[in-house]
């Protein structure tokens, strides 16, 4: 595609001049390489990632059931490179730093990994929950994990506080199984939210 653009110049004494040049999409693209935030998906039988806004996808054959990703360094600073964490139906957590070209097995839990969360303001933190009621926490960008909770019901979702990463809220299957900790799992308390097993986050997302 091409479009002519005309520049008209005037001065205070009435002199004028102009120049017309064509501008093309390819010419603009050559001046500045477009940058896309990485996209990821957990598609049951594979993990997928894209670095070009979804035009093309890289696939990796793992039984992916949950995914969280970050392009932000600690403090919420955007970076062009980032990482993603995938949970699987065979209890594993994988990490990729090259948009699904390769996967590193970083942790094994029990049951299906039903949700993974990375807080926006600190990509070194992450949390995961499973269908067997386990909660795991990482403060090493997903490289190492520790268990911080174990419950007698399946867990559906986990979220960290926006700025206080010691505070986590989890949603379990069944009535009233919504719990919160303010000390990274040392103590858990029930939230009095009634018969609900879905947590609505500030981004509008829900897992049901």
Q: Would you kindly provide a written description of the structure presented here, covering whatever features stand out?
A:
It contains 1 helix and 17 strands. The model is unreliable at 200-208 (pLDDT under 50). With 208 residues, it is mostly beta strands. The protein has one helix spanning 25-31; strands at 2-10, 16-24, 39-42, 47-50, 58-60, 64-73, 77-88, 92-96, 104-108, 113-117, 126-130, 134-138, 146-150, 155-160, 168-172, 178-181, 189-190. The chain is elongated. The strands form 5 sheets. The protein has a 4-stranded antiparallel beta sheet, with no helix packed on it. A 4-stranded antiparallel beta sheet has the order 10-11-12-13, with no helix packed on it. A 4-stranded antiparallel beta sheet has the order 14-15-16-17, with no helix packed on it.
């Amino acid at each position: 595609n091409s479009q002519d653009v005309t520049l008209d110049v005037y001065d205070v004494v009435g002199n004028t001049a102009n120049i017309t040049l064509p501008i093309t999409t390819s010419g603009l693209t050559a001046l500045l390489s477009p940058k896309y935030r990485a996209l990821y998906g957990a598609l049951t039988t594979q993990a997928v990632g894209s670095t070009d806004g979804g035009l093309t996808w890289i696939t990796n054959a793992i039984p992916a059931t949950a995914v969280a990703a970050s392009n932000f360094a600690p403090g919420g600073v955007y970076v062009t490179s980032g990482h993603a964490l995938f949970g699987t139906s065979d209890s594993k957590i994988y990490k990729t730093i090259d948009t699904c070209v390769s996967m590193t097995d970083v942790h094994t839990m029990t049951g299906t990994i039903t949700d993974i969360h990375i807080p926006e303001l600190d990509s070194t933190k992450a949390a995961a929950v499973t269908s067997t009621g386990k909660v795991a926490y990482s403060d090493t960008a997903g490289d190492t994990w520790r268990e911080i909770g174990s419950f007698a019901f399946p867990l559906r979702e986990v979220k960290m506080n926006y700025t206080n990463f010691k505070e986590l809220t989890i949603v379990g299957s069944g009535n009233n199984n919504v719990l919160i900790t303010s000390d990274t799992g040392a103590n858990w308390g029930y939230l009095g939210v009634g018969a609900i097993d879905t947590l609505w986050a500030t981004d509008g997302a829900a897992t049901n």
